[in-house]
Please model this.
Amino acid sequence: MELAQGEKEKKYFHELKAKLKKKLPAWVFSAGEITKSEKMIFGKPCMAAWRKSEFVRLNGLCMLDIDGVKNPREIFEGWAQKWPSDALKGEGYADAFCKKFGILFAHITPSGRGLRLVFKADPERGNLADNQQWLANELGVKLDEACKDATRLSYGCARADILYVELENLLNYDDKGIFDKKFGDNYRHGNTVATVTDGQGSNDDNKAAEQATVAGDGVSENSDQSALNVSDNDIVEANPRTLFIFDACLKELGLTSDVLINVGRRHDTVKCILSKGAVQLLTKPEMLGVLKVRMPENWQDKNILTLVDDFYRKYHSTTDRMTEFQQRVFAQSMKAPPFVLKGKQKRCY
Model:
């Protein structure tokens, strides 16, 4: 009884925190510009700068979040004192530390249990995900493997929680289109995951990443090997509802079904679809059933099955709040037309 009451209180405070957080001012640091696009609001088309990856121009800024820490200020001060620079001897530790890593903004997140670092991305290190991994490696923190999103909102913090800021440079930063020219097209087509595995460099045209994916790279050593032995008993046959959810996530990413058959892009595409919300809206057996339809030749590839298994073990939760996108897709999926799949694959939207 006490446990049930505790869970109710935890849920209440989680919902209250999310509600209050949405009232804070917010920024999209990695987007220099977002082109206006159309979105249906209450059944009517509305043109605005919606946060859709296919309409974003990257400005060369990158963001690293460190979540779930009890003492974020102490952690930041520890980093700053660990990297004193003789070249910047006349400045404080925080200034020297931030300039060493190109950090323009460091603050404690609104929850009080996280750190956010906004820093200048280096195209020589790779794309946004590569730069995030590089800084995470330098600082000795773990990077979340979820799909990286340049349109992600960053909510404001109290003045007292600002640890470092170069305000004018932060608000007006633009690398003259260098980063967008190199990685913008890939990002707008949904290719947002790291192109290298060690976070220390880049691959200009992603060839190494494609070859690694084909070879089975990305398979976790800790994955349950039983995940690779899938039978018909382990899947739920695709139906209009599950196909609608999968296709809606694909569409929201600005992608088309052809990326699911492109060599070197299948793994990244499935990862993005799972990250977009499919991992919460579909069970693992349902996801496998959809992949069997949408990727009939490759759904049983080792790296695909391991990716799905890893994602559902790490990120699937029946108690997490749904995002607005997930809520909308879930509601629409319940109205999916009851057709029977025969012959050619059919879409539900």
Summary: The two ends are 44 Å apart (CA to CA). The chain has a mean pLDDT of 77. The longest strand covers residues 61-67.
